[in-house]
Design the sequence.
């Protein structure tokens, strides 16, 4: 009797489960919101020649940010090529949206377009719902960002770049508040577009506590454009044009124009420096110290430009940041440089460098951070060329390279005669470039790993001299090499002993 009851209960439970599964498949799901959230995470992957190995990026968040910057959630049409992507919750909603900058190769001028991609709850898929043309035409100069320019919590999307005439451009669209559009399909309205042979920057102002708390509106930001003063014979004279948002017209309008006199220097030399990209790169090569608003040189903040090695070094607040020099375009007043951090590849920085005098430059820096990190230092301002170092000599010894194996606490390192090295420590393997050289009569060793996740290391080489022979021991003390010379880092010295293969 008991077995019969158990058999009946088993059959009954099976029938109830089967009915429940059938109901979930046939009937509409009562969890529409959760379903849409899961659906929105699907990505449309566009085939690209650039391949990224996740193992090469240590930070998973950086890999996700990098992925967002490479792929659009909706495939582009034939002939359209993606330039850059900005992904986020722009209106505070629960679903990610995208602004995508792209160009159409089928068009002769091939201007940069911007499109808005939103999630459709009914079709449960992403759609392109708005597109517009911008003033930029050069993909390598494009920067895309969103900001509350008006002060009313509305979305403004800014696309900056350069055009075919090597002018700086900035196109701004504002999301139209619901019910204020001329038609139901109006989403964004162009509120500003500039093209100028100088530079363009947004001037932010402090906003009230009520704005910060979301209880009131704030002041609108102004936009400043710097261009050539055509009424002056001095090439370095400029005009600053200020644009302010007009609430009545709904666009930015010119409200002020101020002449900025440049340095009175030899015009022929200025024309030579500004004559080509290469000439200006040669001019800025080297160390430049920041000049405070009071006109004093600040040796605690500097920028080092090295076009030959495609590298830019920023130093300030005892933090050293190294950027790869990825692209540069000559402008009327100098150079527009795009760069990328060697450690955090999602941190990009565009640098607008202008000639201020034969001994100084003016710099405006814009961050393009795909991964939110702390970047506290302000790099905008004037910089003075560093004078030649006093009582310091930099030379390379005859034995800058060697062919030997050394063993020590960091592992086994092989120095090759071609300037490369390989370091093995258990399961860890690292390779890169090295060089022995002299600075201020001190012998130094520089190790420059190939991996972008590691930074270069510089050591003082102490111990017995070589006398033309391979040394049996190398005692290495790590240092920092900067504008003030050699600074020891007070780390334990590393002793390397000559070893066989």
Sequence:
């Amino acid at each position: 009797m008991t077995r019969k009851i158990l058999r009946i209960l088993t059959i009954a439970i099976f029938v109830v489960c089967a009915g429940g599964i059938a109901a979930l498949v046939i009937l509409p799901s009562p969890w529409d919101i959760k379903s849409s959230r899961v659906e929105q995470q699907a990505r449309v992957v566009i085939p690209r020649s650039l391949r990224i190995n996740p193992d090469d990026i240590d930070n998973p968040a950086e890999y996700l940010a990098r992925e967002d910057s490479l792929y659009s959630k909706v495939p582009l049409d034939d002939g359209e090529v993606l330039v850059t992507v900005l992904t986020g919750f722009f209106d505070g909603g629960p679903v990610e949206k995208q602004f995508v900058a792209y160009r159409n190769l089928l068009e002769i001028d091939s201007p940069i377009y911007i499109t808005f991609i939103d999630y459709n709850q009914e079709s449960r898929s992403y759609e392109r719902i708005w597109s517009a043309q911008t003033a930029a035409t050069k993909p390598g100069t494009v920067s895309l960002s969103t900001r509350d320019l008006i002060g009313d919590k509305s979305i403004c999307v800014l696309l900056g770049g350069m055009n075919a005439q090597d002018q700086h451009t900035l196109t701004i669209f504002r999301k139209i508040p619901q019910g204020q559009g001329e038609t139901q399909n109006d989403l964004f309205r162009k509120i500003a577009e500039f093209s100028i042979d100088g530079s363009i920057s947004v001037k932010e102002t402090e906003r009230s506590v009520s704005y910060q708390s979301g209880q009131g509106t704030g002041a609108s930001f102004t936009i400043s454009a710097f261009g050539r003063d055509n009424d002056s014979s001095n090439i370095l004279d400029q005009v600053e044009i200020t644009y302010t948002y007009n609430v009545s017209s709904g666009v930015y309008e010119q409200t002020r124009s101020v002449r900025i006199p440049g340095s009175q220097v030899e015009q022929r030399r200025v024309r030579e420096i500004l004559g080509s990209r290469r000439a200006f790169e040669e001019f800025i090569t080297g160390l430049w110290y920041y000049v405070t608003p009071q006109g004093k040189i600040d040796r605690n903040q500097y920028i080092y430009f090295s076009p030959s090695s495609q590298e830019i070094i920023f130093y300030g607040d005892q933090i050293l940041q190294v950027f790869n020099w990825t692209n540069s375009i000559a402008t009327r007043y100098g150079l527009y440089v795009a760069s990328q951090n060697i450690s955090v590849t999602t941190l990009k920085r565009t640098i607008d460098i202008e000639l201020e005098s034969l001994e100084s430059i003016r710099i405006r820096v814009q961050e393009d951070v795909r991964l939110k990190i702390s970047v506290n230092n302000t790099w905008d301002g004037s910089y003075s060329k560093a004078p030649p170092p006093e009582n310091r000599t930099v030379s390379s010894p005859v034995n800058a390279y060697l062919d030997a194996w050394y063993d020590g606490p960091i592992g086994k390192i092989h120095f090759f005669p071609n300037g490369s090295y390989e370091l093995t420590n258990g399961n860890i393997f690292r390779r890169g470039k090295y060089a022995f050289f002299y600075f201020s009569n001190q012998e130094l060793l520089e190790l420059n790993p190939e991996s972008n996740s590691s930074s270069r290391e510089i050591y003082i080489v102490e111990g017995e001299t070589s006398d033309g022979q391979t040394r049996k021991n190398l005692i290495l003390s790590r240092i920092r090499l900067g504008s003030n010379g050699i600074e020891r880092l007070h780390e334990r010295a590393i002793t390397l002993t000559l070893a066989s293969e």
